[in-house]
Fold each of these.
Amino acid sequence: PTIYLKDYQKPEFLIPEVMLDFALNQASTLVVATMQVKRSSGSGTPLVLHGEKMQLVSLAINGKTLSDAEYQIDAESLTILNVPDAFELEVQTELLPHLNTELSGLYQSSGNFCTQCEAEGFRRITYFLDRPDVLSVYRVRLTADVVDCPVLLSNGNPVASGRNDDNTHWAEWFDPHPKPSYLFALVAGNLEHVTDHFTTASGNKVELNIYAQQHNIEKCDHAMASLKKSMRWDEDVYGREYDLDIYNIVAVDDFNMGAMENKGLNVFNSKYVLANQDTATDLDYEGIESVIAHEYFHNWSGNRVTCRDWFQLSLKEGFTVFRDQEFSADMGSRAVKRIRDVQSLRAFQFKEDAGPMAHPVRPDSYQEINNFYTSTIYQKGAEVIRMMRELVGVEGFRRGTDLYFDRFDGQAVTTEDFVTSIEQANDIDLAQFRLWYTQSGTPSIRVQQSYTDQTLTLTIQQSCPATPGQDRKRPFQMPLCIALLLPSGEKVLQQTLVLTEDEQSFEFSGLPEQPVVSMLRGFSAPVKLEYNQSDDELLTLVSFDDDGFVRWEAMQRLCLKLLLPAVENGSINEAAYSRVRDAFLKLLTEPCHDKAMLAEMLSLPTASYLAELSEAIEPRQISLIRQQCVQRLAKDLESPFHTVYAQQGQNTDFSLDAESMASRSLKNRTLMYLVATGQPAYYALASHQYHAANTMTDRLSAFTALVHSSYPDRQALIDHFYQQWKDDPLVMDKWFAMQAIAPRDNLLPDIEQLMSNPTFSINNPNKVRSLIGAFTSNLLAFHQQDGAGYKFLVDCVIQLNTINPQVAARLISTINNWRRYAQPYQSLMCTQLERLANENGLASDVTEIVSKALK
Ligand code: ARG
Ligand code: ZN
């Protein structure tokens, strides 16, 4: 069934207080929920509670057990026909967490109990009004075996605990902040923890704990340091303080997403907690810092102010992603962070916008809410917030967020409430801007320039393609940050243009020389840019622009002038190639001030971006041409690549400071090119780096370069890595992924072989993503011309449909844009999607993706 925003109605009942009593047991768990229920509107209507995938044991109102005739129950709800206007409801349910492979509700991971309730998992724990606009104060009591579960955690502050005489013990937690059920959490198990503390700006001392399995406990320090930085940053930048005595984080190996912001008790995918220099790469460290921050920032943007309904998901996610992006930018290189975020937006969100699941940042309808934890909600949502900040300025934005937090604290609100806060705090009109929330699709802007009489005229047109359910679009309001550079590099003007019309002209006079335009600085709007700047103009930007994003983008555009026609024609244009080669040479030989940026500048546009820009995607061609260009650059620039490699030193400083990380990044970028020459001397160099490495960054980079090359001892290297790391699941994730994305043909047998490796498990989402998910991104191997890759994918999805529908749905989404591919890929994908559609017993998650894909 489809749920519509227009059908939203306020809840008829509220549950201001709830007490949950869990008897946790390996075989089955008994839950007694005691709720204070109050009618808030209507009269005489029945109470309808959400509930699924559990056993109702008993039901009582004001202490009196209900007979079977007094309620009705179906697969998704419980209806109590006659209820008073205010009463106590007691619900007893029985759960089987050890059999819960969907990882939603109460489940077990490595034998420990944990929960995931967002979006609709709480209804698998007890019958409840499982909707975000019903806020309750929770008291939770946990009882479990002392030996199996020495640790008993829930939301809020601990209030009491004790021993029973049957080898069990108990703990009670109380969370004073009213919250929706999706923020409920419990954890019970055999866990160790590291502890620290943080003193808030107003002087409250907060205890900070990170829990992990004992063998991982020495990998929690970076997460702890990141948490403290996040807490300080949110005070400094947004004036937001933490509001409980304790903040707990728990790392679990089996988790559907990245992490979850449950009040006072975050549950994390261990990938975003555990790190040391032996097992985690610099990228992993950055990922941990940003996800720890993201979940912490939710304490205000999500928990204190929450969502009225799930159509408002971007209210908390878009805003919180924007907050974590800016936090990371402040902690490291702002330009590199922006480049990575734009790359990811283009790879995932632009793809989504161009496919059958395209939806606005505030969707109008959905079938399965789990399918709407999307790049559009998260990443495009963050871009929309970023544009508002650009329009009102940093100070005006802070006034707006202050007003928002102040006005809506303790409430469940809408994206409209956020926009209104920004508007009212700045006395501006964002009526047209709101279209970013309701219109889907990626807008394009086309820029034309002319220069006469010392005047530069920029004519800018915008358009947005049709998307499902939206044939025609109105023009967006968007900030376009620009600057004008003289050919000498001098910046003569910088300003933010505001585009509001389908077509608009902007004039800049008094320019004795024709300037070079630095357009869309900082990627100030999430659009595609069509702007034919000459090679010379692009090279001026590469050399002189003080906006890191534009400098990088200019280099990318120069490379696209080589790659896109080459993909189309099947051959490389020599003139275009020389221009890219010369630009690379210049970058490699000029004095370098920013190694992290240089590493980014030396990367060709990703295969996924090339696919995104293609009219009809030729996946194999994209992969082959890109590889050819890498190899030619490698051969032609071997010596400068080697010089830069050697300058970084074999074993750079072990540490995580920006300088060391930048040096590793540049070193490993150049190593990739050196290995791509195919020369034995560079195989030896990489092999030496692999064996001598003192960080996982250096080890994995050398490993990847060799595994992706024609290195004759590849298999021995793969085996060596395996022997060394087979006991570390997060490192094995990398081992699977690097093999799955190797740019070579006939990889499918290897993938199938890897699925029977003892460290692989189809029940573990990280493993599915790192092997099967990574394989689907392999433009050469996945897109076999006999369709075997697609058949393999659908076989996996059919298997996962019963094990974990959320993961199954994500996986099949990778080919839901099948119409964008050239033949024969398009028809072969369609055939497999049809086969899947004809399966019996598809979960609603999978059904929504497949039916929309085939419509
Ligand atoms: N709110 C979490 C985050 O972004 C995501 C959890 C969503 N989980 C899910 N199963 N849909 O931080
Ligand atoms: Zn989030």
Amino acid sequence: ESSSTGAPVQHNAELFERAKHSIPGGVNSPVRAYGSVGGTPRFLVEARGAYVTDVDGNEYVDLVASWGPAILGHARPEVVRAVQEAAARGLSFGATTPSETELAELIRERMTAESADGVLAPVEKVRLVSTGTEATMTAIRLARGFTGRDLLIKFSGHYHGHSDGLLAEAGSGLATLAMPGSAGVPAPIAAQTLVLPYNDLDAVRTAFATHGDRIAAVIVESAACNMGVVPPEPGYNAALTEIVHEAGALLIVDEVLTGFRVGSAGYWGASLADGPAYMPDLFTFGKVVGGGMPLAALGGRAEVMDYLAPLGPVYQAGTLSGNPVAVAAGLATLRLADLDVYATLDAVSARLQSAVSQALAAEGVAHTIQRAGNLFSVLFSDTPATNYAQVQAQDAFRYPPFFHAMLEAGVSLPPSVFEAWFVTAAHDDVALERIIDALPAAAKAAAAA
Ligand code: PMP
């Protein structure tokens, strides 16, 4: 193994051995261990613009973007300054602050979109939490408290964080590790979650016909991005909303990954441009909304949100909820993420998608570029995938050699075929050319697998 400068990768390997003595698997989140691509994870020490640098001084064009938050590019000076200024005023107060209201107002404003039915504004109230996991966990508790029902529907291959009820047939790290679920989840809790195939409305109708008056909520990724990218079929989210509402249940649209990345009003807002209007009851946000700091949120109908304590009977709390430093990062990031930024993300993504596809086609590698707005992933199959079973049927073995050829050439891709690729507004021509130059050799490696 050698670095982009030809020097042996020593330091990363030594650090990984050392980390494994004190941290399970050497990592604090499983996919970081490179389990499905093999090799030594890079220990990063700096991230700036479109680039990350490892402990050996190797620089990589980054297509992970901290798994989404870095839409503006890493360490954007205005965001760093906002964080520094907030930190200087105090790291955490454990009390209410003016900036939390500003962020809640900004989220409400951003989650407003024009549709054929007029202007829709489904997010009336917002609560800030620290992780996407907390946001979805709270949204589900809220839906149960509001409806007085217990059952939850989720979709196979969708990932909503690691709370007990959501780990059945989940995407992201569970897909990467081929884990159907997690040990440590009591059977009675797992039994409260019904897992259905994605993009199959009949499966949803059947579940409601059987258990309708016991189903509290359906949770769905706005566009599935944790089994690679698998967009909803046109009109799917709208039809789902209708079925759910007819049965008196709530629809939770998880925009932790897509929110404020796929467009100004997330995938929900983007989907209204050419599809029917729909009004989810609750949304969850994370990643971009915290600008790279630990911050996430849930929001939705005031009538539902007001079921949260202190107004209502559903409890949720957090020592670091609405942390002032995290809120400063989120506010600065959202304020800078204007329509020009989204246009840049779309353009960068489109250019990259076609370059990847051309390189793979030139080597005769069967593939499909799966996309949801500016998010995309490579599926190693000629047939587009619309659900988890199809995603799992691809030639996944072609990804590790592709990944490592790119890494050797100084491009950091997600270390799993089941993850989306993330572009940033800092991916300029120089960064894109480095990626594009690396593609032919990587495509050859994939073809030879
Ligand atoms: N929902 C979705 C759609 C996600 O992509 C993720 C994380 N990738 C989560 C929830 C969980 O967020 P967190 O990792 O911040 O707990």
